[in-house]
Amino acid sequence: MPLQNRVTPFGDLIATEGRGLLMGNRGCLHDEGRRVVRYAQGRRWIACVTSFRGRRRTVMSPGSYTERFFLDEAVALAAGHRPCAECRHEDYRRFQAAWARAGMGAVSADDMDRRLHADRLTGPRARRTYGEEMHALPDGAYAEIDGGAWLVWGGAMHAWSPAGYTDRREIGGGAVAVITPRCLIDVLRTGYRPIVHPSVG
Q1: Which of 7, 34, 35, 10 is nearest to 125 (CA)?
Q2: In angstroms, rounded to a whole number, what is the distance separating the alpha carbons of residues 74 and 139?
């Protein structure tokens, strides 16, 4: 039976087969029975590669951080995570540079994490969203449409599913609820290109 460790663009944890392209960390969220008992622990939410320097872990070991898996980096950003400075060092440096270009101040990990934490939640387990015109969103952004999560990519909207992108529609007019935190939308607007699942195209 799959563990509850796959992340949706809304930041929720679901149990489903498959791992996705990236792994994440937002602290220890599970108990000794590998059951998820909290939403987050701390404000350092990162997105990592699934294989790094031969390191091996038992997923959701007691007392250790909870390994979380994302379909791709666009999902990780929507859920409020940034690139890991160790295992994704080059991506982290690209992200820092994009953050600086967006004019959001200091680019240390602590400073970025503080801003991210303010932009992704309004309270415990309560995601912060905001409205914006659909056509104004950059590639890599996620918006909520009819209760589902849709990725903006290549001039179209793509419907998220745990296994990949399943539907496509043209970008229309009108306001949508933006899922990706506002500061990360600004990072995407400066040209940061996230890793996306091949099913998008």
Answers
A1: 10
A2: 9
- CA distance linking residue 91 with residue 181, whole number of Å: 19
3-state helix, strand, coil in the chain (%, to 5): 20, 25, 50
Identify the H or E element spanning 97: helix 89-101
| pTM of the complete model | 0.94
33-42 pLDDT tens trace:
999 988 888 8
Compute the distance between CA of residue 56 and CA of residue 156 in angstroms, rounded to an integer: 38
The answer to whether the beta carbons of residues 171 and 136 sit under 8 Å apart is no
Pairing state of beta strands 82-83 and 46-49? Answer: parallel
CA separation for the pair 149, 161 (Å, rounded): 8
Q: For 103, which DSSP code?
A: T
Residue type present at position 160 = W
Rounded mean pLDDT of the chain? 93
Q: Using CA atoms, how far apart are residues 92 and 94, in angstroms rounded to an integer? A: 5
Closest among 169, 144, 142, 145 to 157, alpha carbons compared: 169
- 8-state DSSP, 150: E
